[in-house]
Write a structure and sequence with these properties.
- This is Protein kinase domain-containing protein.
- Pfam families: Pkinase_fungal.
- It comes from Collybiopsis luxurians FD-317 M1.
- This protein is of the alpha+beta class.
- The protein has helices at 18-37, 107-123, 145-157; strands at residues 10-11, 41-42, 51-56, 59-64, 71-72, 125-127, 130-131.
- It has a single domain, classed as Transferase(Phosphotransferase) domain 1 (Transferase(Phosphotransferase), domain 1, Orthogonal Bundle).
- Helices cover 32% and strands 15% of the residues.
C-alpha cells in the first residue's frame, strides 16, 4: 500500500486570467528545464492535464505534474522495453506519429509538446476557463497518428 499527502494543485484551465495562464505555462517550462538539466530526466508526457498550479498569497506558481512516463536521459539510447510510444497523442511531437519513428525521445519533443499546449490553450478557449463552442483542435483528441502527423506537419511548415 502506498499513500501520498500533498497540497492541492489546480488545472491550468482554472487560472483566473490570461496572464496567470501564461505564468503557469512559463513556470511549468522552467520546471521541465530544471528536471532535464539538473535531474537529467525527460518528462515525455507534456499535456493539458500535467500543467498545474498552486496559489500562494494570491500568486500562481506553475507545476509540471505526472512523471509516470518520464525517463532518465542516460537511458534514452538504450533499447526500449516497450514498443509503445509515450505521451498524450494531441500533444506528441509531429515525428512521433510517424509509423517508422522508433525513438528515442528528445528534449525537442517535449518542447514541441509545450507548443501544442500553448496553441490549444489559446485557440480552444476564449478566456481562462471559457471553452469555445467549436474548438479548432477538437479533432486532434481522437485523431489517428496519420491524421495528427499530417495536420501537425502542415501547421509547422506553412
Amino acid at each position: 500500500i502506498r499513500g501520498s499527502i500533498q497540497e492541492k494543485i489546480f488545472h491550468v484551465g482554472e487560472a483566473k486570467s490570461d496572464f496567470e495562464q501564461a505564468q503557469i505555462v512559463y513556470d511549468a517550462f522552467q520546471c521541465h528545464e530544471w528536471v532535464h538539466d539538473i535531474g537529467r530526466v525527460l518528462h515525455r508526457d507534456i499535456n493539458m492535464n500535467n500543467v498545474m498550479f498552486r496559489r500562494i498569497n494570491g500568486e500562481v506558481y506553475g507545476v509540471l505534474n505526472d512523471f509516470d512516463l518520464a525517463t532518465s536521459i542516460d537511458d534514452l539510447d538504450r533499447t526500449p522495453t516497450s514498443k509503445h510510444r509515450t505521451g498524450t497523442r494531441p500533444f506528441m511531437a509531429c515525428e512521433q506519429h510517424d509509423i517508422d519513428w522508433n525513438g528515442p525521445s528528445r528534449y525537442r519533443h517535449d518542447a514541441e509538446s509545450f507548443f501544442y499546449l500553448i496553441l490549444m490553450l489559446g485557440c480552444d478557449h476564449s478566456g481562462p476557463g471559457k471553452k469555445v463552442k467549436d474548438p479548432p483542435f477538437q479533432a486532434w483528441i481522437n485523431g489517428s497518428d496519420e491524421y495528427l502527423s499530417d495536420k501537425k506537419h502542415k501547421l509547422l511548415t506553412t
